[in-house]
Structures are given as C-alpha cells and as structure tokens.
Specification:
Blueprint lengths: L17 H28 L1 H5 L5 H32 L2 H20 L4 H4 L2 H31 L5 H27 L3 H8 L1 H19 L5 H8 L7 H8 L1 H10 L4 H15 L11 H29 L1 H22 L5 H26 L9 H12 L1 H13 L8 H19 L22 H12 L1
Helix pairs in contact: 1-3, 1-4, 1-6, 1-7, 1-9, 1-13, 3-4, 3-6, 3-17, 3-18, 4-6, 4-9, 6-7, 6-17, 7-14, 7-16, 12-17, 12-19, 13-14, 13-18, 14-15, 14-16, 15-16, 15-19
C-alpha cells in the first residue's frame, strides 16, 4: 500500500507552517502563564499581607489562594465566549485578544493600591483583575494547541503541539526567576514596591509575543472552512449536539491538573511557612529554585515524550503520567517536611519532570484531536476550562484539608490520587487519535494511517 505523506497540495496562501505556529504558541503561552503564575507565587508569599491585612496569617493565605482560584471560575465563562469566536472568526484573532487582555490585567495589578490605601476596594479590584486573567487564560492554550495541530503534519502533531505547554513551563520558570531577587528584599520594601515590579515587567513580554503572533497565518483548515462557507453559526450549539461525550471525557482527563497547582502554589507555602505546624522549614527562595529546577527538567522531557507519543499513541503515555503522578505525589509531599532542599528537589523532579510532564506533553495534541475542525476551539476551551475549576481551587482545598505536624500532607496526597484516578478512567474511555488524519478527527469511524510507514517515507524524502 502506498501512503501519501504530504496529502493534497495546499491552496495558495494555505500552506501550513508548523514551526512558526509552534514558536508563536510557545511565546504566547510563556507570556500568558508568566502572568498567571506570577500571581500564584505572590498569592502565597505576598498578597495576603498586602490585600488582606486585617486577618491572621493562615486566613490571609487562604483568602489569597482563593483569589488564585477565582480565575479558574472565570475560565469556563471565557471558554464559552472565546471558544465560540475562535470557531467563528478564526483562531489567530482570538489568541491576540487573549494575549492583550492578560497583559493589561497583569500590568494593572502591578499598579493597584493596597488595602491600607483604599480599604476593601483593594481586594475587590484584585479579584476583578484576576477574573480578567482567567477569561484570557481560557482561550490561550485552547487556541494555541488547536492552531498548532492544524498546521502540523500527521505523525508530528504531538511534538509541535507540545511547545504550547513548553511555553507554559517557561512562563512558570520565568515568573519564579523574576520573583526570587525580590523575595530577598526586606519586608518594608517587598510589601510596598518590590512585589509590583514582576507584574509591571509583563508589559515587555506582551509586546514581544504580540509582534510574533500577529505575523502568524490562521490555520489552513479554518481558512478552508471560511472559503467553503462551512463555518458554524453557533459552534457551541453544534459542539453540545454532536460531541457532548467528548466534552465529558476531556473534563475527566483534566483532573490530573491538580498536581500542577498543588506543587507550584501550595507546596511553596507548605514547606516554608511555620503556620502548617512542622518544624523543618526551608526558605521560600529555596522552594522557588526547586520549582524552577523541576520545570527546566520538564522543558527537556516534554518534547521527547511527545515524539514518543507520535509513534506509540497518546493513551499509553497519558495513563503512565496519571499513575506515576499519583504514586510519586506521596514521595514529593513527604519531602516538604524534611527541611532538606535537595530531597525536596528530588521529590518535585520525580513528580513534575518525570511524570506530570508526560501529561503536559500530550494533552495539547490529544484534546484538540478529539474534536472536529468546526468546533475544535470551542471543544477544547469548554471541556478543559470546565475541568480545571478543580485545578484552580486545589491549593485552597489543600490548605483546608492539610493537618498539623510532619504527616499533615497525607490528606493532600490522597486528594491528588483521587484526581489522577479520574484521569485514568477518562483516558481509557477516550479515542486514540495519534494515527488519525486531520480531516477525520472528531468522526466516529475515522481512517487510521500507518504512522510508522509515514515516518519511514519522510526519512527517505530527506535523504
């Protein structure tokens, strides 16, 4: 059997540009999630003292973490709105809007007066701007991952789409790197002007990503839908009519996202703050370096795992990620009360770099591949953002169920295990998509290609 690698020749102006799409996805996600994660770092270490000064330290931290979770409540709302327009007017336009909204919201947080200056207006405005961040984040990864797989060839979709989440990891690393120098400032400087600088720095990153994103062409498959007048008038309606089962499956798959918010947000506070009742504390700056190191490891692992997934399938890798994350969460959380920075790093590296990164490498291809092109942006946005509500409130849940003492982390590990188990079940009931052509994605009985033969033919063409 002869297998075509390139398929039909693209129409003029419709040629896919997978590398450019991956670069734009990387930079856009890096900026969006620098903004998103800088808030997460600040919520546990600074914002409780700036915006919730009338409460005791533990309550202030809990309230600050709740504002972190507020953005995840806004994200489903944003998903319906942005997903609709992503399938209606194009991926690129919505992605540019998301970038500008996130940048503006983050900059305004940086100039927001504190509680001592304007009273209750301070936390109220903080929540509003956090809601805007959530609306923006609802459309970023959904659009970037959908656009990237629509530019990428069969047999390499996971690799190119993985750069969307590599951008997210880079944003998290950058957020922590930027904050570390300010974390060492004396309190009178940190709580007055020092905490503002990382938020204001976002404006520089937004300009860079905006310039790159504007030069990217929209997905060829969407351009074809426009020219053939096949764009859905109400993509959300079509989505729930035709693919509601896929929404439920993807919502279940996203449960494992609690690993990220527990490690990147709650874990920093748990290991470094005395109010959690264990004696062996490490500095917050040490914990930030732990997070940075583990996520640098993830930057390396994710593209490699994505390449593996392009050869053996999405589901085996996702199940490995969920089971490994569940088991290694016990080890990671137990290290947080050890007071040993290197041991904590080993725990975080095992959980984040080796297992959770396998999930991050695959979902940017796996989720868009569950949906047809007409409803792809809506499908990914709505299902992922409904699912990540649990992720957003995971730090608050962890702070509420944690116990005092050296074994106080155990309820949190059980919570992570339950979430990971939900992911395994959802993946088992989902469709395998790594060998399905782009035009057949979302269909009940799609064609399946011999991906090994495609890779072999691609190698021959390059020799």
């Amino acid at each position: 059997m002869t297998i075509s690698v390139s398929g039909p020749a693209p129409a003029p102006g419709h040629a896919p540009t997978p590398v450019k799409a991956a670069v734009a996805a990387f930079l856009g996600s890096m900026v969006e999630y620098y903004d998103f994660f800088i808030y997460g770092v600040m919520a546990t270490l600074v914002l409780n003292k700036v915006f919730f000064t009338d409460t005791d330290p533990a309550t202030g931290t809990l309230l600050a973490l709740a504002t972190f979770g507020v953005a995840y409540v806004a994200r489903p709302v944003g998903a319906f709105f942005l997903g609709h327009y992503g399938d209606k007017i194009g991926r690129k336009k919505v992605m540019v809007f998301c970038l500008l909204l996130m940048g503006m919201s983050t900059f305004l947080i940086g100039v927001l007066p504190d509680y001592n200056t304007i009273g209750l207006w301070a936390p109220a405005l903080l929540v509003f701007l956090r809601l805007c961040q959530g609306l923006s984040a609802a459309g970023e990864q959904s659009g970037a991952s959908s656009l990237t797989i629509e530019h990428a060839p069969l047999g390499r979709r996971a690799f190119f789409a993985s750069w969307t989440l590599n951008g997210t990891q880079a944003g998290l690393i950058l957020a922590n790197l930027v904050f570390i120098p300010f974390a060492t400032l004396p309190p009178e400087h940190l709580y007055t002007w020092g905490w503002r600088v990382p938020f204001l720095f976002s404006a520089v990153l937004v300009v860079i990503a905006f310039v790159v994103r504007r030069t990217l062409d929209d997905a060829p498959v969407f351009t074809d839908l426009e020219e053939e007048h096949q764009v859905e008038d109400m993509p959300i309606k079509a989505l729930f009519r035709d693919q509601w089962r896929d929404i439920i499956r993807v919502v279940g798959c996203t449960s494992i996202g609690v690993v990220s918010s527990v490690t990147a947000t709650f874990g920093v506070a748990y290991a470094s703050k005395p109010e959690y009742g264990h004696a062996n504390l490490v500095s917050s700056s040490t914990m930030l370096w732990v997070v940075i190191g583990a996520n640098i490891g993830a930057l390396i692992v994710q593209p490699l795992v994505a390449m593996l997934s392009d050869r053996i399938g999405r589901k085996p890798v996702l199940i490995t990620a969920a089971v490994g994350s569940a088991l290694s969460s016990f080890f990671y959380l137990s290290t947080l009360t050890s007071g040993n920075g290197w041991l904590i790093f080993l725990g975080q590296f095992t959980l984040t770099s080796l297992f959770y990164s396998c999930y991050n490498a695959i979902w940017p291809s796996f989720y868009p591949e569950q949906f047809a092109a007409k409803v792809r942006y809506s499908g990914v946005a709505v299902s992922t953002q409904l699912g990540v509500v649990l992720t957003g409130f995971a730090p608050s849940i962890a702070a509420a169920i944690v116990l005092k003492g050296e074994m106080g982390w155990l309820p949190i590990a059980i919570f992570v295990c339950i979430a990971a188990t939900m992911t395994v079940v959802a993946v088992l009931f989902s469709r395998e998509t790594y060998n399905v052509p782009l035009e057949d994605l979302g269909k009940k009985n799609p064609r399946r290609m011999d991906v090994k033969a495609i890779h072999a033919e691609r190698v021959k063409e390059t020799v």
